[in-house]
Amino acid sequence: MTALLLRQRRLLESKTMTTATKSNKKLPVGIKQKEKVKLFDEKFKWPGTNWMITFDGFDFQKWVYNALPMCCDVKPLNEAKARKVGINVGEFVFYMRPLPMWRWGNHWEDTGYFGIPITSELIPKRVNLEIYRNRQTAYCGFDTEINIPILAKPDRRGKLQPWMSLTPNEVLSQRGQIRRAKKNTAMAGLGLGWAARKVLERKQVDHLTVYEKSQDIIDMFGKSLVCDYPDKVTLVCADAYEVDWHQHDVSLWDIWSCWGNAAWDNEFAKIRYTLEQDGRICVGWGQGVQK
Q1: 283, 265 in Cβ contact below 8 A?
Q2: Which residues, in sequence order, are CB contacts of 266 under 8 Å at separation 6+?
Q3: In whole angstroms, how far apart are CA 100 and each of 103, 104, 281?
Q4: Distances (CA, A) of 134 to 43, 52, 116, 260
Q5: What is the secondary structure of 173-240 as a DSSP string?
Q6: Count of CB atoms within 10 A of residue 203's CB?
Q7: What span, in angstroms and rounded, lies between the C-alpha atoms of 160 and 152?
Q8: Domain ranges of the chain
Q9: Burial, 88: exposed, middle or buried (Cβ in 10 Å; 0-12, 13-18, 19+)?
Q10: Can you identify the CATH homologous superfamily of domain 169-284?
Q11: Residue 123 in contact with residue 105, Cβ under 8 Å?
């Protein structure tokens, strides 16, 4: 796109945003007419070739509370309030963020790169979450409003940017890695601890060592793992790039804020190459088998 067209598009969008008005109608409260609701479980499969899947919100929320029981005592907050009263975990903030079913949006959002809005009036837009289906970006929604556990990191402006969350994408993008775990397994990055627990549940795994750079995250999300698997897990506060990974049979990495960043991490690529040359397994987030 030329610089002129880019400026014209930005001008058009800014005018649309400033002159857009909400309709007198209220936002919808239910799902779209053609949406089919699917119960959520960690082995969920996509319905054919559809790019969108709708989960039962109550079923998903129940799974969240079972996977991370501490969420039951965390009050849902929007991003602005979380900055003030969220749970501080070192340089991170942990909170439960409400995800509504609908929001007000503009027509131009669905018209493509060179689209022209039909009207400045805001229209209801279904709220979805991105989910990475193999190498394609798809979306998932819920039939009710839900609350999502978020571990966020303040940016330069102080706004909270999600670093880790517990969503269907977390399940889909990591379960391929988890299936690779066996014998003496190690993980880079603890996060909220869901993937580590899934690895510990595997009978093929003799021991799991988790290397996490933040002691605060270990203290917050690692205690329950040690309590439930005292002889099977070791939590180490260390920089993943400075660890001797050759002492482990399998290495699972999840230290990046964005899915797919493992492919651009040259330092990780070198470590993975040396491990594979030694006959060991090394998988980065987003590089596992996804089905």
Answers
A1: no
A2: none
A3: 7, 11, 40
A4: 15, 14, 32, 11
A5: HHHHHHTT--EEEEEE--TTSHHHHHHHT-TTEEEEEEEES-HHHHHHHSHHHHHH-TTTEEEEE--G
A6: 6
A7: 6
A8: 28-103+126-166, 169-284
A9: exposed
A10: Vaccinia Virus protein VP39 (3.40.50.150)
A11: yes
Buried b (16+ CB within 10 A) or exposed e, 128-149: bbebbbeeeebbbbbbbebbbb
d(CA 239, CA 247): 16
Q: Say which residue, 209 or 264, is predicted with more confidence.
A: 209
CB 152 within 8 A of CB 82: yes
At residue 11 the predicted structure's pLDDT band, cuts being 50, 70 and 90, is very low
Query: In terms of Cα–Cα distance, which of 39, 62, 72 is closest to 140?
Result: 39
Closest CA to 23 of 95, 113, 103, 110: 103
DSSP string computed for 72-121: GGPPB--HHHHHHHSEEETTEEEEEEEE-SEEEE-GGGGS-TT---S-SB
Asked if the model's pLDDT at residue 23 lies above 70, the reply is no
Q: Report the C-alpha gap between 137 and 148 in whole angstroms.
A: 20
Take residue 290 and report the two structure tokens written for it.
């996804």
pTM, two decimal places: 0.86
